[in-house]
Write a structure and sequence with these properties.
54% of the residues lie in helices and 6% in strands. It has 315 residues and is α/β, with parallel strands linked by helices. The protein has a domain of 190 residues. It has a four-stranded mixed β-sheet with strand order 1-2-4-3. Helix 1 packs across helix 4, helix 4 packs antiparallel against helix 5 and helix 5 crosses helix 6. It is globular, with a radius of gyration of 19 Å. The termini are far apart. Zinc ion binds next to helix 5 and helix 6.
């Protein structure tokens, strides 16, 4: 099996002509340190909700450029959530981007930390890139499309895991039964409320197109259900989003699903847990300008619109 990072390296070197693949490890990473607790002293600076670090396994195997991109792009999505006070009752949840040897992402209750596996990003990258190549994008545009959507999907999946962290750490979340759908709802709300609804759209596209032989996210609902829910909540979140996906909206209407109402109640649920949610800045205002902002959103939307018929033709 190919070393997954090789694909990234090849693509990077090809299109961005940035030094060799083997360089990179400049000591820029540090695994999340222990959160110290000084409960007896007067409350100093409140603890930040999240730290985001890239593991040495990634810095050693990919390019410095790639590591910087992940730090900027994914890092800014996380950092913006630090503006919301006290997510986790004064606990800090480290988020680590690392090579796992498998494609997944998870929240560990024992460590109270989130891990996103680089291999999962690679899988998303290949899937999106392939899609663009099939639509006759140039090699460079296909790389850019794959990379940007992989970043968005990464953000969305991390937001999903943040949902699990909330469920584990906060005592005031009264949800019984399957939390997976709730975690997706939290991820959609966090995406939309931080001005990144496309994180959810890329996530939906990814789940929809995940090879059925892939056992990824086994404990979750099937990928079709997840895709449908995510698209319902995204299109229900604003008139702009609804206008971007007329086929989805028509399908949901025909099947009697009230996506506007569903999003409103998800938003209420998350706002009850995180009252500071409304005051968070859109992530674009803190994100360093990069090629992510020039992404071909139109092609993503067209691809996702094309999925709608598969969902509603049977009804
Ligand atoms: Zn989950």
């Amino acid at each position: 099996m190919l070393n997954p990072s090789f694909k990234f390296c090849v693509a990077m070197t090809l299109t961005i002509a940035l030094g060799g693949c083997s360089g990179g490890g400049d000591g820029g990473s540090s695994s999340g340190g222990g959160g110290s607790s000084d409960e007896n002293t007067t409350p100093a600076t409140p603890v930040e909700n999240f730290t985001f670090n890239i593991d040495n396994s990634v810095t050693e195997e990919t390019t410095e450029f790639f590591v910087t991109q992940i730090k900027n792009e994914v890092g800014s999505s996380i950092t913006v959530l630090n503006e919301i006070p006290n997510f986790f009752d004064n606990n800090q949840v480290p988020i680590l981007y690392k090579m796992c040897g498998f494609e997944n992402a998870y929240y560990s209750p024992a460590e109270r930390g989130i891990t996103f596996c680089h291999e999962l990003g690679e899988l998303a990258y290949s899937l999106f890139r392939e899609n663009a190549l099939n639509a006759e994008f140039s090699e460079q545009d296909a790389h850019s499309y794959g990379f940007n959507n992989a970043i968005r999907m990464t953000d969305f999946v991390i937001f999903h895991e943040i949902g699990h962290a909330l469920d584990d750490i906060r005592d005031d979340i009264g949800i019984g039964g399957n939390f997976e759908s709730v975690a997706d709802a939290i991820a959609v709300v966090l995406s939309v409320q931080t001005g990144q609804p496309n994180n959810a759209v890329s996530g939906a596209y990814f789940f929809n197109n995940l090879p059925s032989t892939n056992s990824l996210f086994d404990e979750h609902g099937n990928n079709a259900d997840r895709t449908g829910d995510i698209m319902c909540w995204v299109t229900g979140s604003s008139s702009n989003a609804a206008a971007a996906f007329p086929n989805w909206v028509a399908g949901f209407n025909q099947s009697g699903r009230d996506c506007v109402g569903e999003y409103q109640s998800q938003l209420q649920f998350v706002t009850d847990i995180l009252p500071g949610l409304g005051s968070v800045r859109p992530v674009a205002s803190i994100r360093a300008k990069s090629h992510t902002s020039t992404v071909n959103v139109e092609f993503l939307y067209r691809s996702v619109e094309g999925m709608a018929s598969g969902y509603f033709s049977a009804n």
